[in-house]
Write a structure and sequence with these properties.
Blueprint lengths: L21 E5 L3 H7 L4 H21 L4 E8 L7 H24 L3 E5 L7 H14 L6 E8 L1 H14 L9 H5 L12 E4 L18 E4 L9 H12 L13
Parallel strand pairs: 1-2, 1-5, 2-4, 3-4, 5-6
This protein binds farnesyl diphosphate.
Length: 248
Amino acid sequence: MGGLDATGPPPGAEVPNGAPRHVAITMDGNGRWARERSLPRLAGHRAGTENIRVVLEALERHGIPYVTIYAFSTENWGRPEAEVEGLIQLLGEALEREVRALHERNVRILHLGSRSRLPAHLAEAIEAGLELTKRNDGLTLCVGFDYGGRREIVDAVRELMAQGATPDEVTEDAIRGRMYLPEVPEPDLIIRTGGDQRLSNFLLWQAAYSELYFTPTLWPDFGQEGVDEAIDAYRRRPRRFGKAPDAD
Ligand code: FPP
């Protein structure tokens, strides 16, 4: 079996003031935000897309080096065709509009998920964004688009099997090293807006010891203040990674 990439320091490794090193976000509530305003759902997704910039800037101010956003899940293909097309179009527009600005801010963009089902022009635009920003050493932004946690685990195991792994070689390290982005540390904090309290197939492997933070705030309304509250809540939580509390 080939050597495995190290996956970096353990989750919770220090960043300024005990802030999380990696924050992952499920951006839920765009549809309800639009409905409250008698707007089409896509207007909610548009407002949600605008909010990504606000939240990224707030996370940057906290000195957080890794951010993952869940923009489109493997299950989202089951939404009405017009909504799926709208979300795909929004990603295309966002790439066109934002990639250069992100590059100027030294952000490195990574794609989390599969590109095989996306229209060719979008897959190419994603590739161009990754290529342009790959040497940046500021914040790393992982964009989950056509991502599913179960599929990621299945893909990792399939890769291992294709490499001829014996049962003994199917280890946690071997699977971890075959996740889509093995170089990205596991999320310390997973935020979900919109009131539901579940993972919905997001980072299933990586979330083993993540702190989960749920807020009823709808995604387009979750701005700087929402970020500050989530980070403060994270700082107050003791993390033990399955170990006993320190003796007193
Ligand atoms: C959940 O809200 C949100 C989504 C399924 C899509 C999130 C996508 C974006 C914010 C924009 C696209 C991303 C990029 C990177 C351009 P919902 O529709 O489930 O809301 P609801 O629960 O209120 O119906």
